Amino acid sequence: MRYQISGKQIDIGESLQTHVKTELGAVLDKYGQRPTDANVVFSKSGAEYVCEAVVHLSSGLNAQASAKAHEIYAAFDACAEKMDKQLRRYKRRLKDHHKERTEPVELFGASQYILAASEHDEDQEPETLQPMIIAEMETKIPTLTVGEAVMQMELAGAPVLVFHKEGKNGVNVVYRRADGNIGWVDPDNAK
């Protein structure tokens, strides 16, 4: 497995890198996953250290966790504990998913845009209805079943996931509703 361990404007020593590889490897081995690579980024936010980890599994799914603490090792340990909890929760489904799937998850390229927030008063009319694009990035849209999409959204800790439904054309969306349930938008079933 490839590890990419880095720090945003902080120095990451060899000892911390060894600790990350050992502990994260133990978490992933415990659940029998076959990760391809892990990206762990440390940063500082005020007086706290922040650790963000993304692990790409061979099935094409990603597990993601982040944590904060006043010490850098404690931040990583809390992040690894969250990753452990996510993988434990989805262990059976991840294993069942991998048995059914003979090929890794297929990914399609797409453009992703970040739009500027509106800076006008609520009483004023906006000058234009066209939002200002402040960033453009490449993103990947996975081909998944609805169950896999919900699991991927939960593993990533994301509020929404856009995916291509297996065996169908077009894109689908799953999202976390305000009432705690999961919503699913399926354009193929529109009447």
From TrEMBL:
Q: Which GO terms describe its cellular component?
A: cytosolic small ribosomal subunit
What keywords were assigned to this record? Cytoplasm, Translation regulation
Major localisation? cytoplasm
A biological-process GO annotation: negative regulation of translational elongation
Presence of keyword Protein transport: no
- Where does this protein reside within or beyond the cell? Cytoplasm
Q: Which family does it belong to?
A: Belongs to the HPF/YfiA ribosome-associated protein family. Long HPF subfamily.
In Swiss-Prot or TrEMBL terms, this protein is called Ribosome hibernation promoting factor
